[in-house]
C-alpha cells in the first residue's frame, strides 16, 4: 500500500516518519535514565533536587513516562495498518513527542508540583487520543476506537496522581498507580490475544488456536473489573476479599488462555519466548496482588512489580524489538546482544519479584541488581536499534 508520496516522505527526518520510531527509542532511553536516577536516589544521592517524593516520581515516570510512551508509539503506528490511512508523522508527531519529553526532563529539576510540568504532562496523551480517533472515525472501524477512551482514562489517572502528590496522599497515589498498572496489563492482555498466537503460528508454521469466546470474556472481563475495583472499591476486609477473588479468577483464566498459545514451541525463538514469558507474569502478578489484599505475607508494592518489571517490561521489550524490525523493512532476526537484553530483563523481573520474598534481608540488593539489569537491557536495545529507528527503511518504502 503506497500511503504516502515518496518525495514528501524523504523530507521528513526518519525519526519522525512514524510514531514507533521516536516513542520506542525515546521511551527506551528515558527508562534507562529514569532507572539510573532512581538507583542513585536509592543510594542517597541528591539527583532529583526538585522532587519532593522520589517514590512517587519513580512510579509515575515508569508508568506515565515510559510505558505509555511505548503504547503511544505502538498505537500510532498500528493505526496506519489497521485503517489504511497514513499515520501521524512530521511536525505533528514532533510536537506530541516534545510534549511527552519536556515534563520528563523538567520534573527532576522543577518537581512534581510545578504547574508547567503538570500542564505539559496532561496535554500529550489527549493529543495522542485525537490522532488515533481521526483515522478510526474516517473508516468507521469501531473496534479500534477502544484506544481513544483508554488514553482519556490514563490522562484522568495521571491527573489524579498529581492531585495525590499535591495533597500528600500517598495511599491515593498508590491506588492510582496500581490501577494504571492493572489497566496497562489489561491492554497487554487485549493486544496479546491478538498478536501473540498469530506471531507464534507464523514463526512455528502451526495453526493459530481459535479463541474461545467464553474464555476471552472471562479472562479480559475479570481483569478489567479488577481495574475498576482497585480504583473504586473501599479498602475494607470485605471488599478486599471480593477484589482478591476477582483477581484470582482473572489470573486462572489468563493462565488457561496462555496455555492454548503453544508456548512449548517457543524456547528456541527469542522473539516469541520473551512475549510468552512476559505474558505469564500477568497471571502471576494478579495472584501476587490477590495475596497482598488477603495479607498473605506480600506487600502491594512487591506484588505490583510482578506486573511492572515482569509483564510490562518483558512484553514491551519483545514487542518493540519485533515491531521496529518489521516496520523498518528488516527481517525478523535478532542478534546475540538483543537476546542477552531479553535474558537480562527476565533476570531483572525474577530478582525484583522473588528475592525479597525468599530472602527479605537481601531486598535492597534486589532493588539495585534488578535496576541495573533493566538499564543494561534497555541500554542494549537502544544501542542496537538506534540506527534502525533513526534511518529510513531499507526497502525505501514510507514509514
Mean pLDDT, all residues: 94
Strand content: under 5%
Order of helices and strands: HHHHHHHHHHHHHH
Number of strands: 0
**What is the total number of structural domains?**
2
Summed up, the helix count is: 14
Shape: globular
Residue ranges: pLDDT <50 for 5 or more in a row?
none
User: How much helicity do the residues have?
Assistant: over 70%
Radius of gyration: 20 Å
**Which structural category do the helix and sheet elements fall into?**
mainly alpha
The largest pleated sheet is described as: none
Ends distance: 11 Å
What would you note in describing this structure?
This protein has 399 residues and is an all-alpha fold. The protein folds into 2 domains: 14-168, no CATH class; 171-399, no CATH class. The chain has helices spanning 6-10, 19-42, 54-83, 91-110, 115-121, 124-139, 147-167, 170-204, 213-232, 237-259, 270-293, 300-326, 336-358, 363-390. Helix 2 (19-42) packs parallel to helix 4 and helix 8 packs antiparallel against helix 11 (270-293). The longest helix has 35 residues, at 170-204.
In brief:
This protein has helices at residues 6-10, 19-42, 54-83, 91-110, 115-121, 124-139, 147-167, 170-204, 213-232, 237-259, 270-293, 300-326, 336-358, 363-390. It is mainly α.
Helix and strand topology:
Layout: H1 6-10, H2 19-42, H3 54-83, H4 91-110, H5 115-121, H6 124-139, H7 147-167, H8 170-204, H9 213-232, H10 237-259, H11 270-293, H12 300-326, H13 336-358, H14 363-390
Helix pairs in contact: 2-3, 2-4, 2-14, 3-4, 3-6, 3-7, 3-8, 3-12, 4-5, 4-6, 6-7, 7-8, 8-9, 8-11, 8-12, 9-10, 10-11, 11-12, 12-13, 12-14, 13-14
Amino acid at each position: 500500500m503506497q500511503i504516502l508520496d515518496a518525495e514528501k516522505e524523504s523530507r521528513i527526518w526518519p525519526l519522525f516518519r512514524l510514531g514507533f520510531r521516536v516513542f520506542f527509542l525515546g521511551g527506551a532511553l528515558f527508562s534507562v535514565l529514569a532507572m539510573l536516577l532512581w538507583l542513585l536516589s536509592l543510594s542517597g544521592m541528591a539527583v532529583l533536587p526538585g522532587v519532593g517524593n522520589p517514590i512517587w516520581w519513580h512510579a509515575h515516570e515508569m508508568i506515565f513516562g515510559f510505558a505509555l510512551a511505548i503504547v503511544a508509539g505502538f498505537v500510532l503506528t498500528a493505526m496506519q495498518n489497521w485503517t489504511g490511512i497514513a499515520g501521524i508523522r512530521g511536525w505533528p508527531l514532533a510536537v506530541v513527542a516534545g510534549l511527552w519529553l519536556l515534563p520528563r526532563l523538567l520534573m527532576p529539576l522543577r518537581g512534581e508540583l510545578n504547574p508547567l510540568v503538570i500542564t505539559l504532562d496532561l496535554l500529550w496523551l489527549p493529543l495522542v487520543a485525537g490522532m488515533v480517533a481521526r483515522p478510526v472515525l474516517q473508516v468507521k472501524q469501531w473496534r479500534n476506537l477502544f484506544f481513544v477512551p483508554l488514553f482519556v482514562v490514563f490522562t484522568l489517572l495521571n491527573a489524579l496522581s498529581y492531585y495525590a502528590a499535591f495533597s500528600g496522599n500517598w495511599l491515593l497515589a498508590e491506588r492510582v498507580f496500581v490501577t494504571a498498572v492493572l489497566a496497562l496489563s489489561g491492554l497487554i492482555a487485549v493486544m496479546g490475544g491478538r498478536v501473540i498466537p498469530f506471531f507464534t503460528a507464523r514463526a512455528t508454521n502451526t495453526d493459530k488456536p481459535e479463541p474461545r469466546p467464553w474464555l476471552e470474556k472471562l479472562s479480559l472481563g475479570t481483569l478489567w473489573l479488577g481495574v475498576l475495583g482497585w480504583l473504586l472499591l473501599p479498602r475494607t476486609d470485605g471488599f478486599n476479599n471480593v477484589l482478591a477473588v476477582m483477581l484470582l479468577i482473572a489470573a486462572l483464566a489468563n493462565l488457561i488462555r496462555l496455555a492454548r498459545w503453544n508456548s512449548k514451541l517457543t524456547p528456541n525463538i527469542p522473539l516469541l519466548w520473551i512475549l510468552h514469558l512476559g505474558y505469564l507474569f500477568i497471571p502471576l502478578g494478579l495472584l501476587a496482588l490477590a495475596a497482598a489484599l488477603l495479607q498473605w505475607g506480600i506487600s502491594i508494592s512487591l506484588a505490583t512489580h510482578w506486573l511492572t518489571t515482569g509483564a510490562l517490561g518483558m512484553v514491551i521489550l519483545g514487542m518493540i524489538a519485533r515491531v521496529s524490525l518489521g516496520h523498518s523493512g528488516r527481517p525478523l532476526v535478532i542478534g546475540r546482544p538483543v537476546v542477552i537484553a531479553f535474558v537480562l530483563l527476565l533476570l531483572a523481573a525474577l530478582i525484583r519479584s522473588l528475592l525479597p520474598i525468599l530472602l527479605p534481608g537481601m531486598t535492597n540488593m534486589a532493588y539495585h541488581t534488578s535496576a541495573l539489569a533493566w538499564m543494561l537491557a534497555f541500554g542494549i536495545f537502544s544501542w542496537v536499534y538506534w540506527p534502525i529507528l533513526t534511518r529510513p527503511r531499507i526497502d525505501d518504502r514510507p514509514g
